[in-house]
């Protein structure tokens, strides 16, 4: 039997991102690739995770017309101007903050998109396809966002 002992390592980096509008696709692929280089991991996995319920992480193509189409798709799926109970501050009593804004649409859009992506690392490189890029997707309003990049492997 051929066995070998692996020396696993982990590396974590937190990105601070200021968004400008919603919806907005912010390409963070270069930052993820830099974190992989800094980690020294040659073979493993990179997890990209949004700490927000109104900002998603997705992989898609960074082509301007497509990004416009995707933004329009999100607006059609859950338009900001629909009636959401989450936005009725006269009856809503939980998870309220001083600067609460009506963002039921952003939560609905996020449900379809998700909070994270995981990408294999082989030979020190994220195994993205030819046109694939990693995006933070702002769904709510312009503001500061945090994305955790965590890399595990050898």
Question: How many helices in DSSP terms?
Answer: 3
Helix content: 10-25%
Shape: elongated
Strand-residue fraction? 35-45%
Q: How confident overall, as mean pLDDT?
A: 95
Structure description:
With 154 residues, the chain is of the alpha+beta class. The chain has one domain (9-88, 102-148): Jelly Rolls. Helices cover 23% and strands 35% of the residues. It is built from 3 helices and 8 strands. The strands form 2 sheets. A 5-stranded antiparallel β-sheet has the order 1-8-3-5-6, covered by helices on one side. β5 (116-122) and β6 form a beta hairpin. The protein starts with 8 loop residues before the first strand and ends with a strand. The relative contact order is 0.38. The mean pLDDT is 95.
Key descriptive features of the protein:
154 residues; alpha+beta; Jelly Rolls; three-stranded antiparallel beta sheet; 23% helix; 35% strand
Fold topology:
Elements: E1 9-18, E2 24-27, H1 29-39, E3 44-50, E4 55-61, H2 64-77, H3 104-113, E5 116-122, E6 125-126, E7 132-138, E8 144-153
Antiparallel strand pairs: 1-8, 2-7, 3-5, 3-8, 4-7, 5-6
Compact description:
The protein is α+β, with helices and mostly antiparallel strands and 154 residues long.
């Amino acid at each position: 039997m051929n066995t070998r002992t692996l020396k696993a390592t982990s590396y974590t980096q937190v990105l601070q991102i200021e968004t400008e509008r919603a919806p907005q696709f912010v390409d963070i692929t270069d930052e993820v690739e830099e974190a992989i280089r800094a980690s020294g991991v040659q073979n493993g996995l990179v997890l990209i995770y949004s700490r927000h319920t109104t900002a998603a992480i997705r992989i898609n193509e960074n082509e301007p017309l497509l990004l416009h189409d995707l933004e329009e798709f999100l607006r059609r799926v859950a338009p900001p101007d629909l009636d959401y109970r989450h936005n009725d501050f006269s009856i809503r009593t939980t998870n309220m903050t001083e600067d609460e804004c009506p963002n039921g649409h952003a939560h609905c859009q996020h449900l379809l998109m998700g909070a994270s992506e995981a990408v294999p690392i082989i030979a020190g490189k994220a195994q993205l396809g030819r046109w694939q890029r990693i995006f933070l997707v702002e769904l709510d309003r312009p503001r500061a966002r945090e994305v955790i990049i965590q890399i595990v492997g050898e």
